[in-house]
Amino acid sequence: MRRSTPPRRSRSSTRIGVRGLGMYVPPKVLTNVDLEKMVDTNDEWIRTRTGICERRVAEPGTASSDLAYKAAQEALTQAELDPKDVELLIVATTTPDMLFPSTSCLVQERLGASSAVCFDLSAACSGSIFAIITAQQYLLTGRYRNALVVGAEVLSSFIDWTDRSTCVLFGDGAGACVLAPVRRGGILATDMGSDGSAAQLLYMPGGGSKHPPSHASVDQRLHFLRMNGTEIFKLAVRRMANSAKRVVKAAKLDPREVDCFIPHQANTRIIEAVAKWADLPMEKVYMNLQRYGNTSAASNLIALYEAVRDGVIQRDDHVVMVAFGAGLTWGSLLLQW
Ligand code: ACO
């Protein structure tokens, strides 16, 4: 099922925009050459098949909330928002600290965001896009006046470091944004979709109620991510391209009016194919996956952060963000900076 929204204004002609951004990645760098010593792979294969050169890996004992906290602090500082004034806090993550309580409650405590309503959002690599759109809805109704959205992952904890087909792809990191009503620009259109019929293409079988942790689940390596890369590749291209096209159309823009395209940072070849299908020229595509790999729910926010920091995105630019992940889930938003 999918749902698109045309550009909308609430009764008070309000739009929701980004007031501050933050990111944090752990300092430890794992290069392709490092991986050559761990599994039967090589730098050339990884770079040509994925575009990734290195990724960040958290030290053992570091949790998603640790990364989320640091990214959130920076976003709040940029937005000049006191943690005590945060009204809604959503953490998108596939790798929560624990099954419960939510990682967002743990981040709330660290930040001192004592007034915030907190929950986690599970949409895998689409997590930050889903969380931004969810927060936008609460803000448009006037239920809350601001929202802190964080995408944070310690995927390295759930990677099978003996499986060369997956361990080369992912990295750890967090991105954050503060959303609030804005006077100009803001989110012009959004699109979300899901397809549970392909859930088995990318999943982690163990640790939940179906396969609770046991000696057998550990022996069967059920607590690691599993993926059918070829099928995911094909679906990711189609779903992301169509979703990106829908938001451009819903915002009544021509693809040529898009100034910056920020796709989920999974794979250069996927991104090139999406850009082609969605009629978005590669020179407008922002990529930093070569340095971070696929950071799942953190990926779009980390890329947005760096594109803004580096001056790639200028005031009034039209920015398309699109993501795709396990579930399957996909989503996009078109925002004017
Ligand atoms: N190093 C060397 N060889 C490898 C490696 C590796 N790390 N991994 C796989 N291979 C081998 C395979 O075993 C296979 O060998 P064989 O032909 O002898 O059997 C060969 O390389 C080709 O494998 P393919 O799977 O056909 O390679 P493909 O070109 O499809 O690339 C990849 C694989 C990179 C995983 C690709 O399918 C992909 O990117 N899929 C999308 C996965 C993804 O991004 N998932 C993230 C989650 S969803 C999302 O974020 C969009």
Write a compact overview of the structure shown.
The chain is α+β, with helices and mostly antiparallel strands. It has eleven helices and 14 strands.
Descriptive notes:
The chain is of the alpha+beta class and 337 residues long. The chain folds into 2 domains: 2-182, Thiolase/Chalcone synthase (Peroxisomal Thiolase, Chain A, domain 1, 3-Layer(aba) Sandwich); 188-336, Peroxisomal Thiolase, Chain A, domain 1, CATH 3.40.47.10. Helices cover 32% and strands 24% of the residues. It is built from 11 helices and 14 strands. The chain has a 5-stranded mixed β-sheet, sandwiched between helices. The protein is globular, with a radius of gyration of 19 Å. Mean pLDDT is 95; it is low at 7-11. Acetyl coenzyme *A is lined by residues 41, 45-46, 49-50, 125, 164-165, 168-169, 202, 227, 229-230, 232-233, 236, 264, 266-267, 294, 324-325.
CATH architectural type of the largest domain: 3-Layer(aba) Sandwich
Number of helices: 11
Overall, the morphology is globular
CATH topology call of the largest domain = Peroxisomal Thiolase, Chain A, domain 1
The Cα radius of gyration reads 19 Å
Alpha carbon gap, first and last residue = 29 Å
Count of distinct strands = 14
Task: Report the order of strands and helices.
Answer: EEEHHEHEHEHEHEEEHEHEHHHEE
Structural class: alpha+beta
Spatial order of strands in the largest sheet: 1-9-14-13-12
| Total domain count | 2
The helix fraction, in percent, is 25-40%
CATH superfamily of the largest domain: Thiolase/Chalcone synthase
Low-pLDDT sequence parts: 7-11
Structure ligands: acetyl coenzyme *A
Mean pLDDT: 95
CATH class of the largest domain: Alpha Beta
Outline the biggest β-sheet.
5 strands, mixed
Strand fraction: 15-25%
